[in-house]
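User: Hi! I'm working on a homework problem where we have to compare a predicted structure to a textbook description. Could you give me the structure for the chain below?
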Amino acid sequence: MITKDSIESTHAFLHQKYRVYEFSNSETQRDDIEYAISSYVEIMNQELYAQLAKGRKEFLLDHLTFARDMQEAIAELEKQM
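Assistant: Happy to help. Predicted structure tokens:
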């Protein structure tokens, strides 16, 4: 079950992390944010993750698509709020 609370808390976490990631020039800081998001994915509402991922197993977990995945997830969560 996807609750309003899970949508809001996921949005807040991703949005906050992405704002730092977006403007960071530090590869170490960006790597730390990617690690934090991957850890969050493990504990977040799995129905919500599946909905956001749309069948993509590496959604929010792949370095090459991370920024695009974050933007997509945040936009989708904003539609649901």
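For your comparison, note the following. The chain has one domain: 22-80. The CA atoms of residues 60 and 68 lie 9 Å apart. Good luck with the assignment!
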